[in-house]
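Comment thread on ticket #2218

A.B. wrote:
> Attaching the input chain for the structure job we discussed in standup.
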Amino acid sequence: MMNIVFPGFVTIALIGCILSFLHHKDFLPLAVGVASALLIFYGFYGGWYRLPMYIGIFGLPISAALSFLSIRRKSLVCEGLAMDGLK
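C.D. wrote:
> Ran it. Output below, let me know if you need it in another format.
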């Protein structure tokens, strides 16, 4: 079960990073997400190396947080531009 579920969730997270990049065009969350997924897959399939897996596991939420902050920053900029247009 672990051989199917764990890589499946990592793949879903990687697809989410890619879709977020395609929508928001911010490279940093994509780079962190891809690097994290690669570290997880390397640790999982390369001989059960724990350190790369743990680094990758902690990297995926960091990628999500960076994506959230990027979206938040861009929405604040857009709101500021909209307010300037109303003056």
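A.B. wrote:
> Thanks. Noting for the ticket: Helices lie at 2-24, 27-45, 50-86.
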